[in-house]
Design a protein that fits this description.
Elements lengths: L2 H11 L4 E7 L2 E7 L8 H17 L5 E7 L1 H11 L2
Parallel strand pairs: 2-3
Antiparallel strand pairs: 1-2
Length: 84
């Protein structure tokens, strides 16, 4: 499965400000930024990302998925910290 396909699925299904997908083979990392994550539990955030990808996971196109979610405020803060 191509990284661009995963990104497109998530962009079409969710109201995301930004989505970054990395990986190869069937192992991927998703970084998603959106206000929709504000106030959600960690489990709910994971479920929100898994939802649109369940068909691909069931088909074993995606075997492993690491998910990081941020609100826009959290993302701005963390990007600043990462650039130090």
């Amino acid at each position: 499965m191509e990284i661009s396909e995963i990104k497109q699925i998530l962009e079409n299904a969710l109201d995301l400000d930004e989505v970054i997908v990395k990986g190869e083979g069937s192992h991927y990392e998703v970084i998603a930024v959106s206000a929709i994550f504000d106030g959600m539990s960690r489990v709910k955030k994971q479920q929100t990302i898994y939802g649109p990808l369940m068909d691909r996971i069931a088909a074993n196109d995606i075997h492993a998925l690491s998910i990081k979610t941020y609100t826009p405020e959290e993302w701005m803060r963390d990007k600043k910290l990462m650039s130090l």
